[in-house]
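ARCHIVE CARD
Drawer: 12
Card no.: 0347
Subject: one protein chain, sequence and derived structure
Cross-reference: see card 0346
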Amino acid sequence: MKQIFVFRWLTWPFRYTLSKIKRKIGKLDELRIEVFLVLSNSSHVFLKGRVVEAYTQSRPSEKKSALQNILATIRRYSNSSVPDARLLLQIGDQQLELQTDSEGVFEKMIPLSGSVHKRPEHIGLSLIPDENLETPTEKVKKSIQYISKTYPRALISDIDDTIIVSKATNLGEKLWLSVSKNAYTRRPFPGVSDFYRMLTAQGEYPVFYVSSSDWSLFDLIRDFLEYRKIPLGPILLKDSHVNLKNIWKSGGGNHDHKLEKIRFLMDFFPEQRFLLIGDSGQHDPELYAEIIRQYPKRVEAVYIRRFGKVDSEREQQLGALLPDNKVAWVKTTQEALLHAREYLDFS
């Protein structure tokens, strides 16, 4: 993981400079604004997205061959992110200027004012004209997702090897699944849809997905959840841009960003209790243990899909942080479902 971080740190000046040169000589294609999150707790709106060179992506299908999926993956990762692009944000009566970072990502926390009955329903985004950018003239309009009350439960779930079979601990298998499958042909773990629908009261309670995959997979993950009838919710991914040269890194590297994103959710919804779901293949148990320490009494329960041999010390350390029967290490989703029915409150 250190090697990956060092590689990205060393190559960042090259990647950043290449994008700036393409921009300077007018070689950037038409740009696209991709909006990932427009999330509100009623007092603030959190916005996140990125600016990339536009590309055409075909819709996923069960009938697509491995070759067709590989070509789609090439299209997904061949686009360039655009650093230092300026955007105009319209939200209610407010107009704000944003700028993308070195990875083409923008984000903004926007306080809301005025009556709840007059709160804005949408945001609008447009690129500020730049002589070296081919900027689209149409404004991007997105609905604001309001989560403005405290629910009996909310979920924070990992994605890879928690709901979707990813083989994250096997580089070769992971890479093949990443490039040769699409949202309709990636496999979920059996029973995930039933389990998550039960935990969320058939989708009434919110669920947040946090992963070390990068934002280039946002549409694949969203389409996968919808196709497999797994409750939809905000998706929080890794900001670092992955391209054709480092596609194998998606989902790998340092996982501290997952801790930061879970902290963000805990702080953004300070009265909400969460149930955490992950797997033992990477660092979810340690990350979740840290969250329990930092936010006492805010975690209802933890479910960890166990891979490989039992690590008694690791399991005892996490189990000691919550009351009995609130941490479950399971092999299958069916085990997790049976445990939840017995030990969680569904009244």
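Annotation on reverse: Residues 1-12, 21-27, 243-253 have pLDDT under 50 and may be disordered. The radius of gyration is 21 Å.
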